[in-house]
Amino acid sequence: MSKSYTRTTKEIEENIQALCSYIRKAGLDGAYISSFDIFMNEYVPMEECVRYYFTGFSGSVADVLLTSSGECYLFVDGRYHEQADLEVKASNVKIEKCPFGVSLFSALCEKAIELNIDSLWLDGDRTPLGHYEEFKTIVSKTCIESTNHLREFIELPTFKKDATISKVGNLLSSKEKAALFLKKGEAFWLNSLDSIAWITNMRGYGLPFQSSFMGRCFITNESVELAIPSHYDCVVEDEFIKVTKCEIDSFSKDLKVDPSISKIYYDPALINLTDYLVLSEKFNKENLLERESGIIFIHAIKSASEMSYMDDSFARSDQAIVDTLKWLKKGFHEDQTITEMDFFNKTTECYENRGSLEHSFGTISAFGSNSSIMHYSTPSKDLLAEDGMLALLDSGGYFEGGFATDTTRTIYLGKSVASDKQKEIYTLVLKGLLQAQAAIFPEGTWGSYIDALARTPILQAGYNYAHGTGHGVGINVHEGGLRFSPTSSIPINIGNVGSIEPGIYLPGFGGVRLENIVSVVKHPTLVGMLCFRPLVYIGFDHSLINFSLLNEVEKNWLSEYEEECRHRGTLLD
């Protein structure tokens, strides 16, 4: 986070007081603050993360409910419980730790009911339509304004980054892609940035941790109308794509639609309230139709050309990670002074050396007890690598083609032997990864099945982890269309790409997470069955494995996997 965008505890408390005073004067009971930008993004530049300026919490996912009496409730899931405790200092911010499986927004709505909140202020630019529809069922009045209105009484910076948008070759054309989900007379309003990058076959790196770029799309089977910021440099090589440079939030107001278009689809979870209200005024509401998940289930199934880009990206990413971890182990055993920040910076260097254009998320480089913080984001300049520590590296990048990589390895820093507890939790996590990665299942199997395979060895030993086992991976590092969690009813299909990342986290002691990315393919011999093909080939730290906890089948899986690592030169030992 840039220093110029940080806020002191006093400034955060003053921001809360200013907004609470405003809603009191407006006769409102509360205010909702999301973590989103106007594009409903997951990874939002800190300058654009309004939620940060009311809480001091820098994690990527959280929701906030403010009351007119001056209380601020921050809702975080299990990935961020420990981080929120460490970061939130304002006395009037109360951390609401949601248990695994409970959505943040549902918990926030329940709190609003509990507090008898009957009228609510909303930032229409950063509130998804779906949230607004839910709010209407619990409050009798909403006041919808824009982020700019907040700037009248709170200092909020703006994010601006130049970007050059370029085409990715050897992919299905935009016209062919549009034909997959639109008929004549139909259109789609699109503001999900990874979906825009997919439909246009363009990449821009206009935002942190993304290969996509700021924009809006209106798609028919005749054209893609693409709006981008005026400061972007863009050369269009496809006559099907019509580019307009403008203020992004004015695109919906200025949009002109052919009268022959009778159906305009949108995703209620990914269109912001402001855009929806503008579109509903311009066009008959009867012509605006919900299509949940937008087009994500289409681009969640990767083509052969897309898989070729991803295979190359993961091969490069594997080498960058191995380079980093071998550097760390070598330096440690040579008694070099290495801090967490050194570890972080070396990771960036190794990715760049292998051709990375951008990180796909903020690198997690953690020593010792910090490895138990699932999304640890503040590597220390003072914490040194010491004997007996666990070191966790969760990292990813973008290479040619603009598809994200994501991999986690945990290693042991020790001249002494790892403790029994360290070996136990590492081996249990490894068992979970091996069990899930070796799964054989029919097409359409729910993601919850894979989660159970990975989680069972860990549960049987009395541990658990407060996150899902896996997520989709594509242009965004967290892509919809695939999810491995206890509650996931999303079917698994050929061409899906996703993570398998079980973990065990013991606050004050340390944590282990092991993550591979896999693609879904037909089983080579069993008719009608599917299996996983690993995209990540990086060996494991044998100094942390208690082989007596692995059965013979698991030992064979490990041996076969590491034989391929040996062939690729990506063993750690």
UniProtKB/TrEMBL annotation:
Annotated PROSITE patterns: PROLINE_PEPTIDASE
Creatinase N-terminal domain mapped to chain residues: 16-144
GO cellular component terms listed in the entry, alphabetical order: cytoplasm
Molecular function GO labels: metal ion binding; metallopeptidase activity
Domain of life assignment: Bacteria
Occurrences of domain Peptidase M24 (ranges): 310-520
InterPro entries: Creatin/AminoP/Spt16_N, Creatinase/aminopeptidase-like, Creatinase_N, Pept_M24, Peptidase_M24B_aminopep-P_CS, X-Pro_aminopeptidase_P
Keywords noted in UniProt: Hydrolase, Metal-binding, Metalloprotease, Protease
GO BP, one annotated term: proteolysis
Sequence similarity: Belongs to the peptidase M24B family.
Protein's recorded name: Peptidase
UniProt organism field: Halobacteriovorax marinus
